[in-house]
Amino acid sequence: MSTVTGPAALSLAEVDLADNDKFTDGTLPWRMFDVLRREDPVHWQPEPAPNSGFWAVTRHEDIVRVDRDPETFTSMRFTNLEEVDEDYIALRRSLLETDGMRHRAMRLILQKQFTPRAVATYETFLRGLTARTLDAALPKGTFDFVKEVSADFPINVLARMLDVPEEDTQQLIDWGNRIIGNTDPDYADVLLESAESEQYRDLPFRSPAALEVFEYGRKLAAKRRGGGGTDLVSTLVNSSPRDGVPLSDTDFDNYFLLLVVAGNETTRHAISHSMLALIDHPDERARLTADPSLIPGGVEECLRWASPVYHFRRTATRDVSLGGKLIKEGDKVVLWFASGNRDADVFPDPYRFDVTRENIDHVTFGKGSPHFCLGNSLARLEMRIMFEELLPRLADIRVAGEVRRVRSNFVNGIKELPVAVTLR
Ligand code: HEM
Q1: Atom 16 of ligand 1, nearest CA residue
Q2: What dihedral angle (degrees, nearest 10) is formed by the CA atoms of 110, 116, 119, 123?
Q3: Ligand 1 center to 305 CA (angstroms)
Q4: 59 partner at 20 to 30 Å CA-CA among 42, 125, 311, 330?
Q5: Per-residue confidence at 6, pLDDT binned at 50, 70, 90?
């Protein structure tokens, strides 16, 4: 068992969860979450204009309470920190920003394709894909693990589910980076904080890359409408939602874009963080290598450790008390899932990375929410197979350069993870 002490304490005055610059060094976010959980677990965080500030919910128990109660804490006013104008809400709304019956009806369209049983049918394909990726990357000896391994893998699975050609995968990765990385100058075409982003207020994440994704998705939809395909696009365009309201073109655009970005970035970062944790804790890596039956449990600890999504937001639909604070109707309420995953009330010694930790009640995919991650079984399968294939091939692996992180308080991402490997 490997022990890492918690990061050094910070004072409450040093906390600013709205400042993306505080999310690039890999330790500061955890230190901010720690002081908040300890001293002000439901904390009012001011934001620069035009935003109006938000309640930061940092304890596991409170996060779950909010996530479970969509009537009081709605997603209909959007789930990122951006305050989307009334005029653009209908244009930008996806499954993620829909509640109630309509949400259930939209989610049911694809739910069957994401059950544990359905995703298990990808196991052979995934194992082949992983072996191919590793056999190309590992002999290089020294390489960027993100580019050569983590990035390659989730997108190819998604490409298969969408039934799009393999040569399009790099394009899908780039779109995801440009859209989700809208606060990182290395990725964004137009930074979210810039005045220029105003003209893209009608687009998801205010990203012009969204227009390219829409166009790509529409071409696929046009070809597959009325056909007998079983891929995700065919299912979307040829199914009738249970509430009897057909998907509009806008519904399709936003659903398609959500699939492209949700399943790609997150799983990539989960794999990179897990690799880094296993490099930093060679004794834990050795346990998984010696006994692969520990890998599924190890994946849960990796998911807790990685927390690739820092937060999602809700909006209070009525005045409500939480953690001793009075939240007013209309206030933004932000669930810091990553913080919940280090809550010592739920995870004894939370900074200990332990692949045999028991009862890992992490909130990495949300918890008890109608929005609970649709792709969780797929992400879990991808991670399990990745480490089942990777670990037996490795004699040693070390970090061989600077680990670079995405500048984002939304996605906890690793941009570059240079490694040096010795093969068995
Ligand atoms: C480790 C990887 C992943 C992480 C950490 C992650 C995290 C999340 C989180 C936190 C939510 C919101 C939960 C809530 O509000 O309670 C979510 C929703 C969602 N995720 Fe994932 N996700 C991952 C992988 C995937 C994959 C592989 C897909 C599939 C393509 C996917 C598709 C979605 C969709 C469609 C939603 C919206 C569901 C809804 O609104 O009903 N995710 N995910």
Answers
A1: 366
A2: 180
A3: 17
A4: 330
A5: low
Cβ–ligand 1 distance for 64 under 6 Å, the answer no
Answer yes or no: is the C-beta of 366 below 6 A from any ligand 1 atom. yes
Per-residue pLDDT, 377: 97
Spacing, Cα 258 to ligand 1 middle (Å): 9
Q: Which domain holds residue 304?
A: 12-93+115-166+264-423
Nearest CA to ligand 1 atom 34: 374
Q: How sure is the predictor about 4, in pLDDT bands with cuts at 50, 70 and 90?
A: very low
**Looking at beta carbons, which pairs linking 26-31 to residues 24 or more positions away fall under 8 Å?**
26/403, 26/405, 29/310, 29/338, 29/409, 29/412, 30/6, 30/338, 30/342, 31/7
CA gap 300, 380 in Å, rounded: 8
pLDDT at residue 341, rounded to an integer: 98
Q: Looking at ligand 1, which atom is closest to the CA of residue 335?
A: 15
pLDDT category of residue 2 using cuts at 50, 70 and 90: very low
Q: Give the residue, by CA position, lying nearest to ligand 1 atom 30.
A: 263
- The string of pLDDT tens digits covering residues 21-52 is 999 999 999 999 999 999 999 999 999 998 99
Tell me the residue ranges of DSSP E strands in 342-423.
Answer: 394-399, 404-405, 414-416, 418-423
Q: Is residue 269 part of a domain?
A: yes
Lookup: tokens for 399: 């970090």
Return the structure tokens found at 394.
């490795």
> Looking at the domain assignment, is residue 154 inside a domain?
yes
CATH of the domain at 299: 1.10.630.10
Nearest atom, ligand 1, residue 96 CA:
40
Would you say residue 327 lies in a domain? yes
Q: Does any domain span residue 259?
A: no
pLDDT at 334 over 90: yes
pLDDT per residue over 106-141, tens digit each?
999 999 999 999 999 999 999 999 999 999 999 999
Q: Count of domains in the chain?
A: 1
What number does the ligand 1 atom closest to the CA of 258 have? 35
Query: For residue 97, which atom of ligand 1 is closest to its CA?
Result: 40
- Ligand 1 and 413: CB distance under 6 A: no
- Kindly give the distance from the C-alpha atom of residue 375 to the centroid of ligand 1, in angstroms, as a whole number: 6
The kind and range of the H/E element at 161 are helix 152-162
